[in-house]
Amino acid sequence: MNTALIAGTLDFASGGVGPVLQIWGRTRGTIDVRGVAALGSLPLYLNTINPAIKTVADFSPKDKIALPAVKVSIQAVVLQMAAARLFGDSAYSSLDALTVSMSHPQAAAALLSGGTEITAHFTNSPFQEQELQDTRVRRILNSYDVLGGPATLNSLYAAAKFRVENPRVYAAVVGALREAMTIINGDKAAAAKLYVEEEKSKLSPEAVHKIISDPQFIFTVAPQGFMKFADFMHKTDALKIKPASWRDVFFPELHSEDGS
């Protein structure tokens, strides 16, 4: 996505906090890629089927933790934050060797099969809730506990050139996202039903409604937790330039929001 965005063949991209911060830092002064809007905040669960693992400190070299992308995904960065808290800042990457890049569907299947090297999965909804329906699976970490509060999962981002050359399209996208958040917050049961119909999901509307009704699920365009990630990534040299505020990372249309 980032390659296409930089080449001008893609107008908008959607990614996690880490990738957004990195492309913002790398394109400052050139094509100036910034966030357009957050796509909501939700907790991420680290689940395991290994009965010996009670906390992150219990992982051994025999364990493998599946997550979307080693070192760079939001799950990978949260795991590093948890390691730094447990073992000290200098040991933030001590669990990286146990991580394996896998898509969430593949990782969930591997975890639940019990016949692979995957003993843990750092995931997100709906996979985390589906996994926990199996009595062998336990949650050992909630990302909100590590971060001390809500955090954006994904954000929409774009290059400054597109925003300047296509102001009506850009405004329409931002307006549509705001409207979508209002609709979801106004009637989550209807939103769940619409999601299942549009996605042709195998999940029931009732199951989706239960997930999105969790108070920890926050439907907002306001970025949350960005500076906590920026501080950590800058400290570990994953981000060369640290923004002074989350507003540095997002275009002005979002600056009136109560972000963090």
How does this structure look, described?
There is one protein chain. The chain has 260 residues and is an alpha/beta fold. The protein folds into 2 domains: 2-41 and 151-254, D-Maltodextrin-Binding Protein, domain 2; 45-147, Periplasmic binding protein-like II (D-Maltodextrin-Binding Protein, domain 2, 3-Layer(aba) Sandwich). The protein has 11 helices and 8 strands. The chain has helices spanning 2-7, 17-27, 74-87, 104-113, 127-131, 143-147, 160-165, 167-186, 188-199, 205-212, 226-235; strands at 13-16, 33-38, 45-48, 64-67, 99-101, 118-122, 138-142, 154-159. The chain has a 5-stranded mixed beta sheet. Strands 1-8-2 form a 3-stranded antiparallel beta sheet. Strand 4, helix 3 (74-87) and strand 5 (99-101) form a beta-alpha-beta unit. Helix 8 (167-186) packs across helix 9 (188-199). It starts with a helix and ends in a 25-residue tail after the last helix.
CATH superfamily of the largest domain: Periplasmic binding protein-like II
Written as H for each helix and E for each strand, in order along the chain, the element string is HEHEEEHEHEHEHEHHHHH
Radius of gyration, CA atoms, in whole angstroms: 19 Å
Could you say what the CATH topology of the largest domain is called? D-Maltodextrin-Binding Protein, domain 2
Class from helix and strand fractions: alpha/beta
Rounded to the nearest angstrom, the distance between the terminal CA atoms is 25 Å
User: Mean pLDDT, rounded to whole units?
Assistant: 95
Number of E-type strands: 8
Low-confidence stretches: none
